Amino acid sequence: MLPIQCPFCQYSLFFNEERSYVCENNHNFDLSKQGYLNLLPVNNKKSKSPGDNDMMVKARREFLEQGFYDPLMQEIKSVIENELEFNSEEINTIDSGCGEGYYSENALNNLNNIKSNIIGTDISKHAIKQAAGKYKENFYFVSSIYNLPVKTESIDLILSVFSPNDSKEFGRVLNDKGYLIIVSPGKNHMKQLAELIYDSFRPHEYNIIEKTGEPFSHSSTHRKTFEIEINNSGMLQNLLKMTPYYWNTSKEGQEKIKNCNAITITCDFNITVFKKA
């Protein structure tokens, strides 16, 4: 049974063998054509369509499916397989802020000696639609990470890649032996992209440990750095749409992106592991 609960009354959600999940209070949530649930109450929305829009989601999928971030996925899997200790060979995992599903599928699936039951959530309906449409073995739903429709202490591992985090809510859904892995930009992440559009680069600051409070304790940090070669402006534009730079790029900067057909870019990541204290 999926470790999900009703966002209104917090009772467990059960599949009714048709196309819906229901709780004891008869709150009903229909599965979409792609197989996802929308568990985001209207009063939790800050806009009509929160999160990444369809254009940004499709750009991310086109970029990630080229394999540019595969070294990061392998590093995360290595950390899970070699460093984390679970009570069972079958674990429940959440990809928090999962986007179009690439991270959950490629970092949490096919682990050595571990069977991972993967659920993923994002506040963007566009992202969840793409995730559920492609990665049928995982279960995806729309929700806010600040109010997860997930049962208390039902999760063994949370993965959060370039996504907002809520220590209190993550601590609630993780069991006593649970882990949280946060992937954040390393000091030199996307250095050449920033230099192209802004003519300068300010190194990223690493403050995830300070930001992640109770009930977590820092276990370890791994840094993964590699370079990627982008050989057409269309793919470079896709990368730009995945970054915060997209919203602050001038017309001049956008022209530089369009006219750049070859660039080497540094990918620099911090993979920080926390244990539930």
Textual characterization of the structure:
This protein has 277 residues and is α/β, with parallel strands linked by helices. It has a single domain (49-276), classed as 3-Layer(aba) Sandwich (Rossmann fold), CATH 3.40.50. It is built from nine helices and eleven strands. It has helices at 54-64, 70-83, 102-107, 125-134, 167-173, 191-198, 208-211, 233-241, 251-258; strands spanning 14-15, 20-22, 28-30, 37-38, 90-96, 115-122, 139-142, 155-161, 174-185, 216-230, 263-276. It has an eight-stranded mixed sheet, sandwiched between helices. Strand 8, helix 5 and strand 9 (174-185) form a beta-alpha-beta unit. Helix 1 packs across helix 8. The radius of gyration is 19 Å and the shape is globular. The chain starts with 13 loop residues before the first strand and ends with a strand.
Mean pLDDT: 95
Structural class, by secondary structure, is alpha/beta
CATH fold-level assignment: Rossmann fold
Summarize the amount of helix as a percent range: 25-40%
Radius of gyration: 19 Å
Query: Helical element count?
Result: 9
Fourth-level CATH superfamily: Vaccinia Virus protein VP39
How much β-strand is present in the residues?
25-35%
Side-by-side strand order of the widest sheet: 4-7-6-5-8-9-11-10
What topology emerges from the helices and strands here?
Blueprint lengths: L13 E2 L4 E3 L5 E3 L6 E2 L15 H11 L5 H14 L6 E7 L5 H6 L7 E8 L2 H10 L4 E4 L12 E7 L5 H7 E12 L5 H8 L9 H4 L4 E15 L2 H9 L9 H8 L4 E14 L1
Parallel strand pairs: 4-7, 5-6, 5-8, 6-7, 8-9
Antiparallel strand pairs: 1-2, 2-3, 9-11, 10-11
